[in-house]
Amino acid sequence: MSDLNQLLLNFNQKQNFNYNDFYVSKCNFYAFKLIDNWPKWEKKILNIYGETGCGKSHLSQIFISKHKAKIFKENQIDNDLLVKLKIYENLILDEFENRTDEKLLYSLFNLVEQDNKFLIINSKKPITENEFLLNDLKSRVKNCLFAEIKIPDDELIFALILKNFSDKQINIDKKIIDYIVKRIDRSYRKISEFIYKLDELTLKKKKPINLKTINNLLAGKIE
Fold first, then answer.
1. Which residues contact 89 (CB under 8 A, 6 or more apart)?
2. Distance CA 60, CA 179 (A)
3. Which is it for the CA torsion 8, 31, 63, 99, positive or negative?
């Protein structure tokens, strides 16, 4: 595992995946409302998509805590799993990247349809962008709900940074947060990396939070 992946893994382990810790803004409002309003969905299968770190897993955990669901990865899908899934009303296929046998995936869709279940599929891109070979599967994939979590807006970036420091009882001038928001890359991965490294500097190395430190971090001059 790369140092950056380990860094982000450590950061994510600190997060609380509960309802009140999910910040709703324009970029994720539709996906959040669908999770919150279950089972009032127009269709049985919901595809939530967006870049790594955008909150798909967080929403899944909120759904599980509110409604109960069986969550699994696509490398777990086989005939035995499909049998075991019959006892669950709600299913979550997490981190889908189209590495599943198409016949098994089609069987999963059929299971949802025939047994009147609900399925959430989390993916980086909409599942309709995959080049499936099975025509029946292509048809099923198109007949889903789609909710994109877009790149973070200023409101969400501000909330993420402020909450991080509030949790640690660290006072930070809101003008500095505004300064960061205007300059940081619009990427959930970059934001997570920035917050983690700022934590390292302030908590472990006891460095003050000032514009020099912020600028060095934003410029990648501090590893």
1. 68, 69, 117, 118
2. 32
3. negative
Q: Which two tokens stand for residue 24?
A: 């709703």
DSSP state of 186: S
Paired strand residues for 134: none
**Angle between the N-to-C axes of helices 102-114 and 135-142, in degrees from 0 to 180, rounded to the nearest 10:** 50
For the chain, how are helix, strand and coil distributed in percent, rounded to 5? 55, 10, 35
Residues of 81-96 as b/e, b for ≥16 C-beta within 10 angstroms? eeeebeebebbbbbbb
d(CA 119, CA 191) in angstroms, rounded, equals 30
Q: Which amino acid is at 202?
A: T
**Which tens digits make up the pLDDT trace of 4-57?**
343 333 444 445 556 777 889 999 999 999 999 999 999 999 999 999 989 999
